[in-house]
Specification:
- With 259 residues, this protein is an alpha/beta fold.
- Helices cover 41% and strands 15% of the residues.
- It folds into two domains: 217 residues, Alpha-Beta Barrel (TIM Barrel); 38 residues.
- The model has no long low-confidence stretch (mean pLDDT 92).
- The structure holds zinc ion (ZN).
- The site of zinc ion (ZN) has 5 residues, from loops.
Length: 259
């Protein structure tokens, strides 16, 4: 089984990156301006006719996912998706519900009623999920799923891993909390199974990436998918080699497009 899942975060108006989601430069690099996001959606529409949801994994569908729980999920993101007849997967950091920049309980219910899929993005968004003890992981998933299910009046079974720090234990903990589809940040189209839970990778789109990246991921282009996969593997190597080597590898990978 395969799926081409793409990971976005917030989409803001007039470059106001503080208006939605987590504050600070580290979070802002993942946020897109609305005009740019619309160009990404145009590229998706050109690349594929199979934008779908995790509940309908037929063929090799394209799944659109959004992390953190920012207030931009409802306006403009959901509005723009619906114009094309698409639905998104929206992952919410439940401790932040109703706080400045994040969705309220009423907005979550509205998104759910409009046919979008609401999932957990943990309770507190730990910096390194995989470094938590199993008991802490169980609390992150369990309490967050319970809160969301209560808000929506519907059992929540979908989640994404905060910070992309996935481990087998993180997946087993999510499965034990009732998650049957867990999205990671590993750029792969492969869908794995772990304790009855589907584990799906995702290709990330962040600010500064051209719409061709969204289109390339949606088309399953080896060129775009491979490049992100190579970069992701290089990032893992940084822990062993140190920052300087990582930056050189990153540059080498990015420069390949000019050949
Ligand atoms: Zn996150």
């Amino acid at each position: 089984m395969q799926a081409l899942a793409i990971m976005y975060h917030d989409v803001v108006e007039r470059g106001d990156f503080e208006s939605s989601g987590f504050p600070g430069a580290g979070a802002h690099v993942y946020k897109l301006c609305r005009e740019d996001f619309e160009r990404h959606l145009d590229a998706l529409a050109r690349a594929t006719a199979s934008v779908s949801t995790v509940y309908k994994l037929e063929g090799r569908p394209v799944l659109l996912t959004f992390d953190d729980g920012g207030v931009s999920f409802i306006h403009p993101i959901a509005d723009l998706l619906e114009r094309r007849g698409w639905r998104g997967h929206f992952f919410v950091t439940t401790d932040r519900i109703g706080t400045p920049g994040f969705l309220s309980e009423a907005q979550l219910r509205e998104l759910h009623a409009r046919g979008h899929i609401i999932g957990s993005h943990s309770r507190s968004h730990p910096t390194r999920m995989a470094a938590l003890t199993r008991a802490e992981m169980d609390r992150e998933w369990g309490e967050s799923i319970a809160r969301l299910s209560g808000v929506l009046g519907d059992r929540v079974k979908v989640a994404s891993v905060p910070g992309g720090y996935f481990s087998r234990e993180v997946g087993e903990s999510a499965a034990a909390a009732g998650v049957d589809a867990l999205f990671t940040s590993e750029p792969t189209a492969r869908v794995a199974m772990l304790g009855g839970c589907r584990v799906l990778g995702r290709y990330v789109v962040q600010r500064g990436m051209s719409p061709e990246w969204s289109g390339g991921f949606a088309a399953g282009s080896r060129w775009y998918c491979w490049r992100q996969s190579a970069l992701w593997k290089a990032k893992r190597v940084v822990k062993v080699l140190g920052g300087g080597q990582y930056l050189k590898m990153r540059q080498a990978i990015l420069e390949r497009k000019d050949q």
